[in-house]
Amino acid sequence: GQQVMQIPQYQHVQEGEDFTTYCNSSTTLSNIQWYKQRPGGHPVFLIQLVKSGEVKKQKRLTFQFGEAKKNSSLHITATQTTDVGTYFCAPGANSKLTFGKGITLSVRP
Amino acid sequence: DTGVSQDPRHKITKRGQNVTFRCDPISEHNRLYWYRQTLGQGPEFLTYFQNEAQLEKSRLLSDRFSAERPKGSFSTLEIQRTEQGDSAMYLCASSYYHVAAGVYEQYFGPGTRLTVT
Q: How far apart, in whole angstroms, are the C-alpha atoms of residue B23 and residue B7?
């Protein structure tokens, strides 16, 4: 399967700070999806990236797919307490998603 | 509510017992997936169906696990002779797939939390 690494596994930020996390693969990915899971909740789809160098924005969230399609990033501008949760990247192959361990974001008010 | 539903939400069972979980996907979705998630980990793929056909099953999946989607709508996941290591959250997801349009996002249900004592 297509394995991805998300490091670190936990990050703490002050409300209002920017936050960036990366998702890295040793192999070229056909596409990658990002999901968010709130504490006690289930994963919720955020975005899908398919094209090399693709950048997509959702309000304060910016997602990027690397030129070589081996990595992806999520950037959150001016974090809010509503951003807390675990963010997973998941490459898709033949519909099956392989989730990374995720990064758990906590935001200090 | 037209989202993915799962039943039961919680299940406590004794080691060696069999358990069965149900998933009702979003009605127009032709693909249904089962995942397992333990604390601190991302969801781990178990199996998926397109309509009633089971297209892939994880090699990590013990033969104690079996899943069905008899009419291409709801699905059941059965675990026979449960072990303590089976304790986890079992997540179901559904999506719509069309060969020309490609793969779309998966919508997850709330999960069934299994505790094996």
A: 7
pLDDT of residue B101: 62
Strand order in the sheet with B5-7: B5-7, B19-24, B75-79, B65-68
Residue from A95, A103, A101, A90 nearest A2 by CA: A90
Across chain A, what does the average pLDDT equal?
A: 93
Peptide bond into B70 cis (omega under 30): no
Instruction: Note whether A95 contacts B43, CB cutoff 8 Å.
Output: no
Contact (CB, 8 A) for A109 and A15: yes
- Chain mean position to CA B56: 13
Can you say whether the dihedral through the CA atoms of B36, B44, A91, A5 is positive or negative?
positive
Task: Report yes or no: A98 and A3 within 8 Å, Cβ to Cβ.
Answer: yes
> From CA B102, how far away is CA A56, in angstroms rounded?
19
Residue A29 scores a pLDDT above 60: yes
Alpha carbons within 13 A on the beta-carbon side of A50: 7
DSSP class of residue B26 equals -
pLDDT of residue A96: 79
Q: Give the pLDDT band (50/70/90) at residue B19.
A: very high
pLDDT at A109 over 60: yes
CB contact B9 to A (< 8 Å): no
Which of A42, A44, A102 comes nearest B42 by C-beta? Answer: A102
